Amino acid sequence: xxxxxxxxxxxxxxxxxxxxxxxxxxxxxxxxxxxxxxxxxxxxxxxxxxxxxxxxxxxxxxxxxxxxxxxxxxxxxxxxxxxxxxxxxxxxxxxxxxxxxxxxxxxxxxxxxxxxxxxxxxxxxxxxxxxxxxxxxxxxxxxxxxxxxxxxxxxxxxxxxxxxxxxxxxxxxxxxxxxxxxxxxxxxxxxxxxxxxxxxxxxxxxxxxxxxxxxxxxxxxxxxxxxxxxxxxxxxxxxxxxxxxxxxxxxxxxxxxxxxxxxxxxxxxxxxxxxxxxxxxxxxxxxxxxxxxxxxxxxxxxxxxxxxxxxxxxxxxxxxxxx
Length: 323
Known about the structure:
Layout: H1 8-23, E1 26-33, E2 36-43, E3 46-53, E4 58-61, H2 66-75, H3 79-93, E5 112-118, E6 127-134, H4 136-145, H5 155-168, E7 171-176, H6 178-188, H7 191-207, E8 214-218, H8 223-233, E9 238-242, H9 249-273, H10 284-302, H11 312-316
Parallel strand pairs: 5-8, 8-9
Antiparallel strand pairs: 1-2, 2-3, 3-4, 5-6, 6-7
């Protein structure tokens, strides 16, 4: 098991081992990370990582579920008194069930760049990519702020969090507006290769301002798609690709920034179109809005607001000349 510093981290580690022993959870040998130690906890087919910092902060990461909820309860202020007064209720609330493999962040505590995008699945609006540099100290503060995968946050929360993230972490954003998106797609003919190229551009921009040897991104295609795009840009960096990488704090921060920029762009495009452009692609209002714009100005106008390669374009004007 990884060693401790004999002070705050040691106390927190003994507390973690105690609660794990009481509940029958398994604590795997830990490893040293900058400013602390990281442990892995497993129970009932679920797994989570717990990073104990010398500041006394404990960062719990993993797939949402009973184990992560219980560990966050343990890590929150006032745990000993609450556990003593309501131990039965807390323990009884944790019913472990088999789940998919937990994607914990073994990069916690390491300086890295997180990458994510917004707008890829939205018919209207731009494609936005963000890259954010996060070090160990910033990671603790981001956790305190409540930063998480943007899909778990409301847009109002995202709008409030984003300026605080940008004050703390160097970041870069690339926004591909619909008209530029449609031109790019015509050139690439493949969404994944196009997305990889935009991510590479975004990462390259951030690497001009910060020195970092590791980046992490969601794996949206074969691993070689993004690594090839980075190599073509001359980005020399260790790239970690994972499904649901938003469980990593750096990627979560990037997801918040990308979503904020997407929402802002959608508001601007709606004002320009003189009609509210709905988000997503499954709402019937999306097809109805596309049909309205097509009737008003044809594909030329629609291309200013929408990603034309989506099947929605033809559904909005079936069998007609939408030019």
